Amino acid sequence: MNSFGKSFNTNGTKKAGASSTLFGRALPAQGSGSIFGGAAWPPPSNEGHSPESAETAETTDGSAESSRDASSDDIPTELLNVPPATVNDLTDYVNLVFKYLAFRDWTATVLAAPLLSLDNEHARCSFLQVENPTIAAGPDASAEDALLYELIGGHISVIHYASVQDWVSAFAMQSAIVTVYRQEIVAKEKNSNWFIPLAYVICDDLWKLAKKIQATHNQLDEEDSGHEYLDKVVTHTMGLYQTCTRDSRIELDQSKKVGIFQLTVLLLQIYFETNKMALLKPLLRAVHILPFVFRERLSTSDLVLYSFYLGKKNMFDSDLQMSDKALEYAFKYCPERYFDNKRRILIYWIPVKMFLGEIPLDNLLDDYGLSEFKMIANGVREGNIRQLREGIVRNRQFLMQSGVYLMVEKLAQLTYFALFKRLVGILGTHKIKLEAFQCLLTFLGEDIRHIDEVVCIISNLIAKKKIRGYISKMHNVVVLSKENPFD
């Protein structure tokens, strides 16, 4: 059953969408309908990145909840033969992580990446909460191996600082990890990219630690709000991003450009949360011109999260058609088990859909706990401007916290349109007196004191091609087209 109703018929009744999909139509997977521009990124396939196996857009605290898919191509035989490991102490943990990284293989690094993330359950193990771990690389270890041990040791120190909530020290150590990773591994490795799956993980941890510092400063009501730490995250992440973009190779197993997409996703999150959306355009352009072959390294979670932020940006840019496609993609491929993430997507998608003339049904709002939109949706559907304004006032805090308050306020024009269509249906004529519409608006609580205000409302609807007709100012009448007067 379609959960959005196509609204605003001439007679004021609701007409169901033509498609049986959740939102009335399926997002085209290729061609000019691509939400990414140029060649389309394909929807997840059953072979590599299935919707059931990937995580998605955003957790309730705003962080990315992702599971980086491993590529099945060229997996070392030894990796397939690695037996299940039990980690009982620090030595077991170090040996396990190093074993994966020592393969110097993309898939092995994908498997190791969660073991270097603060989100993983290992970060809560007491035996890993060591400030200065003693990790010996061994006399026969190469300089490259010693560097990997150094990264592992640094992560263990970060776990310790995070466990005692010393966020500043944790941030400093994580910054050092990112710096070493970028300067000693990414910049110096010339003919491989096995290390790229670590980029998102270590930068994402840095971002989360910066937010912890900012939250602590806000709780203490300190003048220093911690913004400089957020700026440092951008500097580190952009440095890594630029190192990847400068790589001229195009081979899938060598080019560092395969890391651009995930770093772009992280930068999108950062710029949205720091209100620097003007910096998004060059990032999106770089994604659009990525070689199509790099899609093999993208997981469903990457695509969903990117689509979510792309949809938000297009919404704020008033590009509603592109926003609709992007948010539809994000919602469609976000697994059902990630209820909070699908709900977050709907918070932005519902206003976009209403602007496009599709009103959410009550069962959709009930299913996802979005009763805040009920009065607003009913007001727009019925042309009840009083109900719309009451719904906005009652749920102002929710709308402002969600970032859609201004968007929802603009629905007044659409509500005027629905109300005018109902009036036309009742009167049954193509000539509508402006005074009749003025009386209706006044009855519904609008402060309309002069007929010129009604003229302004109708003129805007005509200019936006919602109404086909003209205003006869001499007779104060709206003359509608006899054929298809409404868009």
TrEMBL record:
Coiled-coil ranges per UniProt: none
Gene Ontology MF: a single term: RNA binding
Annotated stretches, region: Disordered: 34-81
Ranges of residues in domain PCI: 304-485
SMART domains: PAM
One BP annotation, GO: poly(A)+ mRNA export from nucleus
GO cellular component: transcription export complex 2
Family membership noted in the UniProt record: Belongs to the CSN12 family.
This protein's name: CSN12-like protein
Source organism (scientific name): Panagrellus redivivus (Microworm)
Lineage: Eukaryota, Metazoa, Ecdysozoa, Nematoda, Chromadorea
